[in-house]
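Handout for the seminar on molecular recognition.
Each group receives one record of this type.
Step one: identify the two inputs.
Step two: read the structure output and locate the region that could contact calcium ion.
Step three: write two sentences on what you found, then compare them with the reference statements printed after the record.
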Amino acid sequence: MGLSVVILAAGKGTRMQSNMPKVLHKIAGKSMLQHVIDAAQQLQPEQMIVVAGHEIDQVKASVAEQEVLIAEQAQQLGTGHAVDQALPLVTEGNQVLVLYGDVPLIQKETLKQLIDAQPKDGIGLLTVKLKDPSGYGRIIRNGEGRITAIVEQKDASMEQLAINEVNTGILAVGSHKLKQWLNNIDNNNAQGEYYLTDTIAMAANEGGVRACHPASPIEVEGVNSRVQLAQLERAFQKQQAEKLMSEGVTLIDPARFDVRGSLSCATDVVIDVNLITEGEVSIGRGTHIGANCIIINSKIGANCVIKPNSIIEGAVIESECSVGPFARIRPGTQLAQGAFIGNFVETKNTVIGQGSKASHLSYIGDAEIGSGVNIGAGVITCNYDGANKHKTTVEDNVFIGSDSQLVAPVTIGKGATVGAGTTVTKDVTPGELCISRVAQKHIEGWQRPVKKQTKNNLEDKK
Ligand code: UD1
Ligand code: CA
């Protein structure tokens, strides 16, 4: 029997106050819907169907590159009606797992348990006990403790409202029975909706209902407002932070730490406050990351120091490098072992050789810099002529004086020296000194201009 995952995502999410469908709001840089899809994908389902309605085109576009089917629910007539819209797409005889696009932190292990627990001709139901059950459907059990029904908050008696075991909404059921039971539900209830939860009482009379519980209640928490979205974001980041700490990473403040993607760290990495990572990032053993850094899709080696306020994207940084403070390392940058990039230095599509330094205020783009090179303050590669990009090559042990411009395409040979303030426009031969500085003039007895006295600046002085 194959597995069909049905993800409900048609609702408007009125309380989000948004033009974007609720399920496309993000947690850790990824839409809630995508979190759910990714969790479900790990079960290797035969098919995945998203029920969309409100702003369906945006939902469709967000999953366009994935093997996900879309069922349209034009009017949101209730969760039972929503699942019914997916049924024509479900492979006959499959097991159906119902998930919610706005319950993003559900975990594979919990879902695995649930699909294994589903009785034949019955329902596997994910329930949870909450201190404050208000708003949720209550789980009704008989004298023997067996589940007999779910009663929605708005339809519940005072006695039923006191029950603290609630319906998470997530359930597993055979498609055959599901179809039969959905045909028998009506909307004679307080909300005038077709409730999926009404199938529970029907299942109780046939194959039975077996409950499962999530490892942590956070897994089944839904998002209805931006406040809840922010709460889940923090809870999720806390989980990621705690996992890294248990693996030997020091986080100076786990509450000021955001991973949007995947971050893998070797032991004894120390991360100061306000790091944001995006995409795939890895950090080697013993590396220190200063405050307020942003690191995107990059690999950083062991024993590096990334000083505060540095932005690193699409880079490979080998061991023992020093970067920042205030460095901007752009895509295509490779720093070999022990390279030193100081403050206000920008690199792009550039290889910097072993032990080479650019300590202050430089732009180095489309360049290949050898080892043992010293790039003085304010040096700039002029890589762009307004139409095309050109390459700058700087061979090993070159010294480039401050405030020089290297007009590409140009090569500076091994061991050459470029005097400060030089505009290099032609290749420099290995070992020579290249200098294009204007001769210095001296004008004796020079008088500085004096400010004229006017009515206005006299008044300024008062
Ligand atoms: C539902 C359950 C309730 C459970 C709660 C858990 C029912 C009748 N009630 O209540 O027992 O405790 O979830 O959060 O199932 N949706 C559609 N189409 C619709 C209606 C809803 O796609 O026509 C989607 C919504 O976008 C949302 C989800 O289904 O993602 C739940 O709908 P919602 O209206 O929030 O259900 P609740 O009243 O919270
Ligand atoms: Ca809800």
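Reference statements: The chain has two domains: 3-220, 226-434. The pocket of uridine-diphosphate-N-acetylglucosamine (ligand 1) is lined by residues 8-11, 51, 73, 76-79, 81-82, 100-102, 136-137, 150, 152, 166-169, 195-197, 222 (CB under 6 Å).
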